[in-house]
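Record type: monomer structure entry
Structure origin: computed from sequence
Chain ID: A
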Amino acid sequence: MIAYMQEKSKKQSFWQKIKEYLTSNIGGGDSFKKYFFESLATMLASGIDIRTILFDMKSQAKDKSEIVFLDRIIVAIENGTPIWRMAQNERLVGGHYLSLIKIGELSGFLPQNLDTIVKQMERDRDFNNKLRSASLYPSLVGALLLIVAVILMTFVFPKILGVYESLNIELPTVTLVLIAIGEFMASNAVWFFPLVLFIIFLIIYLLFFNINTKKYGQMLMLKLPGIGKLLQ
């Protein structure tokens, strides 16, 4: 626990924070969840009662949100709430993790089951790190290509329209469509270009960073030709 607090309190530079974000587990608070369950598993296996464990964690916590969280947990435990119900109410884990905690409480193997959860969290974190690393490059390349295309269509293409007009020939349908798009983007560049950038960043946020929708982005990346095999 002390090592966790010391590591958390270290001052980091801007680029260190960026590096940590790109290599950390997807979703906020996962390191604290791992620390929380790891501490419970270790101390419960040593015969320490859970109330003492929680007060010990609270005394060492420095983040205000963690202290508030531990206060809620202490109140819930003192009111007789099972650990699995507390974890469900606090949305610490879900699905099969809750089942493992519940089975552990009923069977007396809670420390072993919590240790299993911690190890699985490690595996999930490693997988998510690899998935993020593999999807980051193609995502950035795709976004940059789209931005370059918008810039070309907005500022470069309209300047060479006179060349096409001077040819005095019938242009292909595709070229006419591109000319129309270029003229529209050039005449509405003041609001169109910022709107496109906003939409791009919104899509990236929803597909890869938002905790409720990022699963769809991961599913999409796994289904893309070539990229899906690379991620797997």
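Annotation 1: The CA atoms of residues 146 and 200 lie 9 Å apart.
Annotation 2: Residues 1-12, 18-28 have pLDDT under 50 and may be disordered.
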